[in-house]
Amino acid sequence: NCPVKCFRTDPVCGEDGVTYWCGCADARCSGARVKKLGFCDGGNGGGSGTAGQALLLVHIIWLILLGVFVLFGLL
């Protein structure tokens, strides 16, 4: 088990047909080799959908909060 810290999406397609949202380190951590940069074509093996949308939502909220903190001089 190797935790991958992912602060921005950097999708890669693994040879197993799964899109790994946190890049090469995420694929390597899962034991998959990278087939290509970017999203996998079609049948994503569950690599997208709800999990991908949740990750994107977390990133959007994080950026909004960061912007508010910077705007009001809290950071």
UniProtKB/TrEMBL annotation:
Residues 1-42 form the Kazal-like domain. The chain crosses the membrane at residues 54-74. Keywords: Membrane, Transmembrane, Transmembrane helix. The keyword Transport does not apply. PROSITE patterns: KAZAL_2. The keyword Transmembrane helix applies. PANTHER family: SERINE PROTEASE INHIBITOR, KAZAL-TYPE FAMILY PROTEIN. This is Kazal-like domain-containing protein. It comes from Genlisea aurea.
